[in-house]
Amino acid sequence: MQAPDGKMRLTDVADTEQIFRLIQSIPSPKAEPFKLWLAQVGRERLDELQDPELTIERALRDYQRLGYSDDWINQRLKSIEIRKELTDEWKHTGVQEGQQFAVLTNILTKAWSGKQLKNTNSTRG
Asked: Can you give the pTM of this predicted structure?
C-alpha cells in the first residue's frame, strides 16, 4: 500500500469478516465485550431471518437514533417500497439486473433531476 510519504510499503490487510474472525480468536478477557456484541448481533440477524419484520423495526430504530424525523423515515420507507415495485415490474417484463437496471435508473433520474448517474456509459447523451 502507498504510505503517506508516497512509497509503497508491505502491510497486512483484512476485510470485515476476517477482522471479526481474528477478534473471536483472541483469548484475552479484554476482547470478551466485543465477542459478546458479535454474538448478540448474530442472534439478532438469525431472529430477523425468522421474522423479517424485525429488520424493518431495527431500521426504524436506527433512523430515529441517527436523528431522522418521523416524516423523513416514512418517506424513506415509501421510496423503498416504490423502488421495489418498480424493479419487480422491470423483472416481470424481462429487464436484466445490472446494466439494464442502471440504464433505466439513469433515465428516470435524468428525467426528474436533470442529472446523470455515474457508471452508465451507454446512457450518455
From this structure: 0.57
